[in-house]
């Protein structure tokens, strides 16, 4: 009689353990989402912006971002700063303006329109610095300059994020790419 009671308690415990495991898998999922890819030509380069969402319960550190083309070749990320480019262009235009108008009677040094730095109501954000952190439950807007159009982006993490994998590859130009993982 006692053996049957112990066996019944063991079966009930086993069923409860399986139910707890299934519940944990079903409701304790994290996810990564890469969304809103925008590719624009900007100052002779391709500027790609997108949003990376960390839906896990931990902080994620992205140590490398790799862009690839259709032939799976790496596309290097350019060290391009649009504000420095604009400043250099404005300086060159100011120099040319000074040379062209040097002998004008009404020309004064302070009258060069290119020497006046424009006021930007919405200053441009600089390209993303790698590595970067993304807190749990938040998203980070990323911006990079490239020479070619990419077909995929690979995010390499400092630790494993999914069954021994330290990186995720997202195709570009789908509306949303969602990868779920079990934590």
From TrEMBL:
The chain crosses the membrane at residues 7-27. The lineage of its organism: Bacteria, Bacillati, Bacillota, Bacilli, Lactobacillales. Keywords: Membrane, Transmembrane, Transmembrane helix. This is DUF3592 domain-containing protein.
């Amino acid at each position: 009689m006692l053996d049957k009671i112990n066996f019944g308690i063991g079966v009930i415990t086993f069923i409860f353990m399986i139910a707890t495991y299934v519940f944990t898998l079903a409701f304790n999922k994290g996810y990564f989402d890469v969304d809103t890819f925008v590719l624009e030509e900007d100052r002779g380069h391709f500027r790609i912006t997108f949003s990376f969402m960390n839906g896990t319960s931990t902080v994620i550190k992205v140590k490398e971002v790799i862009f690839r083309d259709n032939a799976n070749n790496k596309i290097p990320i350019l060290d391009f700063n649009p504000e420095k480019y604009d400043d250099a262009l404005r300086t060159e235009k100011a120099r040319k303006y000074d040379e062209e108008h040097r002998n004008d009677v009404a020309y004064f040094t302070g009258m060069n329109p290119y020497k006046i730095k424009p006021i930007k109501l919405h200053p441009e954000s600089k390209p993303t610095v790698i590595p970067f952190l993304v807190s749990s439950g938040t998203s980070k807007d990323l911006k990079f300059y490239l020479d070619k159009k990419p077909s995929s982006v690979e995010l390499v993490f400092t630790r494993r994020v999914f069954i021994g994998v330290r990186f995720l590859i997202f195709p570009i130009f789908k509306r949303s790419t969602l990868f779920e993982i079990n934590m």
